[in-house]
Amino acid sequence: MGKTVKKFMEGNDAMVAGAIAAGARFFAGYPISPSSEVAKGAAKELPRHGGIYIQMEDELSSMAALCGASLAGKKAFTATSGPGFSLMQENLGLAVMSELPCVVYDVQRSGPSTGAATKPAQGDLMQAKYGTHGDHSIIALAPSSVQDCYDLSITAFNLAEKYRTPVIFLADEVIGHLRATVSIREPEPGEIINRKAPAPGTTQKDFRPYDYSGNMPAPMVGVGDRNLLMRTTGSTHDEKGEFRPTPENIDRVTHYLMSKIEDHVDDITITREYKMEDADTVLISFGCSVRSSMSAVDLLRKEGVKAGMLELVTVWPMPEKQIRKALQQAKNVVVVELNMGQLAGEVRKYNDYGCNVIQANRTDGVLITPKQVVDALKGGMK
Amino acid sequence: MKKEIVLSGVGGQGVVSVGEVMGLAASLYEEGLNATMSASYGSEARGTFTKTDVIISDGAIGYPNIESPDIILCLAQVAYDRYVDAFRDDTLVFYDNEEVTPREGAKGEHIGFPYRSEAIKLGSIQSANFVALGTMSKKTGLLKPEGCMKAIADRFAGKKKVIESNQKALQRGLEL
User: Fold this and answer.
1) Less CB within 10 Å around the terminal CB: N or C of chain A?
2) B118: which residues sit within 8 A by CB, 6+ positions away?
3) Model-level pTM?
4) Which of residues A191, A212, A239 is at a domain's end?
5) Which chain A residues are Cβ-neighbours of B28 within 8 angstroms?
């Protein structure tokens, strides 16, 4: 077991600690509320661990620097919020196409545009998957506690390295600024995943930094490697990383970018259940709204309602199996989120069971209360 | 066991620092307790209303905000007025009895001390918040004084004078 230390710390600080524990040694970003403490913490901690912190001129260049650092072999991360996340979308696409492992922390706030800079929201759920153009899949994780901010950071980097993909850490102002008791456990070396390198003795003639024949990424080397030249481009490329826009190649690359994540949904999916065993009323939620949902379940149980909660920790790919199981089990499902119903739309997609799907939304920049969740259920109950 | 504690006052009175010290004391120096703390976050400035919600529990903590406190500290009138309607009969209301005039007929057990004056007597007006923590610790028994002392040293690590004056203030609160 790795060394464990108890702490009372803030979510944003726990994200930095988790990233460093995962082996991240590069941060490029542009501080923005309510994520600024991540940049501050990275600036303080990375140099102490032999890492690099760069404050960039904006979020476009931040994401470009992340791609560059990842291509050079570093585990890299940035932290932002709505307006910055929008600016990162173009180069996030480059990271998808060039298969560059990295982690983008989005500490969500109320939008669109500058919105209400210091207020929480969960309106970036769809943007996390569809913000950058073109068909692709992506991994996004949503923490609901300060403990998650640490533990899931390690998971996020591991998934990024394993599947050679950007991972979105979809936090929010409530969790980012919450302080809580946490156990900071140093991971064992075996718990950390690093990207695969080509077999020793691989020559340039045989080196293929891309592999579209299956559903797992090829080994890669850092740019500047002494023996192998690592080519890449955001344009549709072949196994060597060379531009190849033929119909067959475009088609197989598109299918590959989907299947390398969607085929491994069971490995990537993390969900949690709270009092679900006998539940006929199920709350489905993610991120900060989980906290309100958990308390709402307790309130409902006191009233004799058989309530339970399904927490989606992995939000992309959407945990279809677990959502279907809840819809099959329950008479009423309440989808709890700080937006107008982005997750509710996904849940309804899978509702082949005639389940009554109710929305509990709050969009005034304040965390939804347990009572509001209970009221939403009572208002929409069949 | 679950206690919901609101620390309220105006910007500059250090309610966030007290919340951090309470969270540290519960997390590090008590057996089996968890704490959460959420502070007001926005464009508030020195002199305007501010609050911190601290929840201490021996179980998991769900919703981290407080609607009706078990214990509340009000260091300023604006803070008292903001919360008075949320008091229950069994709410413990700690307040600065030279800065706050309680509302007649208000619910809750009112416990007043001259926190600001006591802090001035100790030579540090900024540590009224820790005089208050001392009185809360003594009256409720929720957090051990030794744990609070250590937590002050953790929170202000590297600032010897600040640690000394805050620990002195805590001690004064324990004696009131």
Assistant:
1) N
2) B128, B131, B169, B172, B173, B176
3) 0.97
4) A191
5) 6-8
